[in-house]
Design brief:
This protein is α/β, with parallel strands linked by helices. It has a single domain, classed as Chloramphenicol Acetyltransferase (2-Layer Sandwich), CATH 3.30.559.10. Helices cover 44% and strands 21% of the residues. The chain contains ten helices and eight strands. The chain has helices at 13-25, 40-47, 55-69, 120-132, 135-138, 140-145, 150-162, 166-172, 222-246, 248-257; strands at 30-38, 75-78, 84-87, 92-101, 104-113, 175-177, 196-200, 208-216. Strands 1-8-7-6-4-5 form a six-stranded mixed beta sheet, sandwiched between helices. The chain has a two-stranded antiparallel sheet with strand order 2-3. Helix 2 (40-47) runs parallel beside helix 9 and helix 3 (55-69) packs across helix 9 (222-246). The longest helix is centred in the C-terminal third of the chain and has 25 residues, at 222-246. The protein is globular. The N and C termini lie far apart (67 Å).
Length: 258
């Protein structure tokens, strides 16, 4: 006979970091603006490569280059002891990573420092490590954090988000990239504690992609975000296209074709 009675259970360790994020996300007034970008030519260049360069790698490098020119994207709002802004000198990309570990789905965040100075292949190598590397070592600190009691975890989060400056950028990043495009879905506004949160959807049959930037309205306004998205489109459709076509992987693909 099937047991039809319900039962209570503790919050799984795999959900604790996400719960912490949502707790602190409540105090960040995020807005979101989007722009439809034509990426058909860039998609074709990707398909000609002999090795894989993922869309996240392209967006992380492109947004890093844009954020280098827009200091607002490296600024963070602090409310303690009085309201003020902190501007980090360099970019640190934070990437949402879904992993299956010990038979349970987890959400982790990997950091890539100064992506605007890295090659696409180097960024891809770091993303591959986040995706395929051993969870126990790649996300060691996050795995240790979930073992702590909720009160102590939240205190650590609070310190890093409200007191620490360089530590916050190092551990949480200066901007977030989160997407479900590979699964055919779009995220409207990712829950985040970052000033800038970049997400994008899948390409449609015409090669168009909806790119969304959720942002902390205390730090910047919609006009600035529109300029950022316009700059991002230029970097993706011009500079990233050139970098793909000039990469060693592209030459290898041409050699194989010949």
């Amino acid at each position: 006979m099937t047991d039809r009675s319900g039962h209570r259970m503790p919050v799984p360790a795999s959900r604790r970091l996400t719960c912490d994020l949502l707790w602190f996300n409540r105090s960040v007034p995020l807005c979101g603006h989007d722009r439809v970008i034509q990426l058909g030519e860039l998609a074709q260049a990707r398909s000609n490569l002999s090795c894989r360069i993922s869309w996240p790698a392209l967006f992380i490098r492109a947004f890093g280059l844009v954020a280098h020119q827009h200091p607002e994207l490296r600024q963070t709002w602090y409310r303690w002891p009085i309201a003020h802004l902190y501007q980090h000198p360099v970019n640190v990309a934070s990437v949402s990573v879904h992993r299956e570990w010990n038979g349970t789905p987890w959400l982790f965040w990997g950091q890539i420092h100064e992506p605007e100075l890295l090659s696409l292949t180097t960024i891809q190598m770091q993303l591959d490590r986040f995706r395929d590397g051993p969870v126990a070592s790649v996300f060691r600190l996050q795995r240790q954090l979930v073992q702590l009691p909720t009160l102590l975890r939240r205190l650590i989060w609070w310190w890093n988000l409200n007191i620490s400056t360089t530590g916050r950028a190092k551990r949480f990043g200066t901007f977030l990239v989160s997407t479900l495009a590979g699964r055919g879905a779009e995220i409207q506004i990712p829950p985040s504690i970052h000033t800038g949160c970049l997400t994008y959807g899948p390409l449609n049959k015409d090669g168009e992609c909806r790119v969304t930037l959720a942002y902390d309205h205390r730090v910047m306004d919609g006009v600035c975000v529109a300029e950022v998205l316009e700059s991002l489109e230029t970097v993706l459709t011009k500079r990233m296209l050139v970098e793909l076509c000039d990469s060693p992987a592209a030459y290898l693909a041409d050699d194989h074709a010949a």
